[in-house]
TrEMBL record:
Annotated source species: Thermothielavioides terrestris (strain ATCC 38088 / NRRL 8126)
Alphabetical list of PANTHER family matching this protein: NON-HAEM DIOXYGENASE N-TERMINAL DOMAIN-CONTAINING PROTEIN (PTHR48420:SF1)
Lineage, top ranks: Eukaryota, Fungi, Dikarya, Ascomycota, Pezizomycotina
Superkingdom classification of source: Eukaryota
Region feature (Disordered): 265-292
Protein name listed in UniProt: Clavaminate synthase-like protein
Signal peptide extent: none
Length: 395
């Protein structure tokens, strides 16, 4: 069994506060009390590439439990309703998708459902997708330039508001993490643009969020062996990454909530159906589902491969937000920050008395479409992202 990692943890106050004697320039303090040594340990050459932030705003816990409960409610809606939330033209990068992504040497992923939403509302509440550029427009890049598709309020009352509120909170914290990363990069990387990452995170209309519902494993299903890439495989278990294959995020910083494990045999999300009429009667949104204290399978959850080549199990505390590095940041920093290979391992049905689902949220902070991520080859984020989407989507 892989060891459990102990990622670097800092408080929100440490990210906010100004160190004694710090020089203030511009609209924001340039220096927090998080040490450069801590940043090096979190993101440097020998790091896990992940930073955990504790003491986040108190409303985070309520928003997290509520939105992750919606993930089960959403994933268990009738197919006829979910079909209305799909956007094939946008390669399923807005709205709902299931079985549309290719993983593991072309295998179609039917183990998790996704709901994507553009987070351009963080920059301007009137925006529903990225701002078009001369090079990228809704016709040639609908993946990022298609408006959000939200479930009907009568179907999932309160879903959109909860989703947007939690994403705004996570991006607020991501801005502070980005500022800390800038401090590290400005010291370590010659020619690094001052305040670059903070500007990306705080002003991008390209940031996306992905609400994930990992379906319970079927006890009668015997998983087929999986061929893992040589550079990330270090286990004798051929089905190690069965819930989500080993991959890299292609943004800058990915904000992650801890996963919610739900026993859907005890808390049946399909029971939401009789409550669909609640909104029309002015009743409150759907109630959060009971959350298991932990997965019945201790090996289930998020794994990352450290920069020393070791695969480790990462457990994010429920009251914290984790941030990990992606490919865009690796390119921007010339490889000083490395993208984190990671995967999700499912809860084995044999170890569970019920039907265990896993719900989580990832917020991918990304440069605007026209911003360069490769300064030498002059590759924009839009061009880079288009290649990733083509590789990962069922044709």
């Amino acid at each position: 069994m892989a060891p459990i990692a102990q990622p670097v943890t800092v408080s929100l106050d440490e990210l906010k506060k100004v160190a004694c004697g710090a020089s203030l320039t511009g609209h924001h303090p340039r220096t927090g009390t998080v040490s450069l040594e801590a940043l090096r340990e979190a993101f440097g050459p020998d790091s896990l590439g992940i930073l955990v932030v504790r003491d986040v705003p108190p409303e985070f816990s309520t928003l997290r439990q509520h939105l992750l409960s919606y993930s089960s409610y959403l994933g268990n809606l009738p197919k006829s309703q979910l079909d209305k939330l799909e956007n094939e033209k946008a390669k399923y990068l807005t709205g709902w998708s299931l079985g549309k992504e290719t993983l593991k040497n072309g295998q179609v992923d039917t183990l998790k459902g996704s709901f994507y939403a553009n987070c351009a509302f963080y920059v301007d509440p009137k925006l529903s997708c990225a701002v078009p550029t001369e090079q990228f427009n809704p016709d040639n890049f609908p993946e990022y330039l298609s408006p959000n598709i939200w479930p009907d309020e009568a179907t999932l009352p309160g879903f959109r508001q909860t989703f947007e509120d939690l994403c705004r909170l996570i991006i607020d914290v991501a801005v502070l993490v980005a500022r800390a990363c800038d401090r590290f990069a400005e010291k370590e990387i010659t020619g690094y643009p001052r305040g670059y990452l903070e500007k990306v995170v705080s002003t991008s209309t390209t940031t996306k969020a992905r609400l994930l519902h990992y379906f319970p494993e079927d006890p009668s299903h015997e998983p087929a062996p999986v061929a893992m890439p040589d550079e990330v495989a270090n286990s004798n278990d051929p089905d190690e990454d069965d819930w989500c294959a080993t991959h890299l995020d292609h943004g800058c910083l990915t904000g992650l909530t801890s996963a919610m494990f739900v026993d859907e045999s005890q808390s049946d999300p399909t029971e939401a159906a009789p409550e669909i009429e609640r909104a029309s009667r002015g009743l409150p949104p759907l109630a959060p589902l009971p959350e298991l204290e932990a997965s019945p399978d201790p090996a289930a959850g998020l794994y990352i491969k450290s920069r020393t080549g070791q695969t480790v199990h990462v457990k994010i505390p429920r009251d914290c937000i984790a941030f990990q590095t992606g490919e865009a940041l690796e390119r921007i920093t010339g490889g000083k920050f490395k993208a984190v290979p990671h995967f999700v391992r499912g809860a084995r049905a044999a170890l569970s008395e019920g039907r265990i689902a896993r719900n989580t949220l990832a917020v991918f902070t990304q440069p605007n479409l026209g911003d360069e991520v490769d300064m030498e080859q002059h590759i924009t984020f839009g061009e880079f992202a288009r290649g990733i989407v083509a590789k990962n989507t069922v044709s």
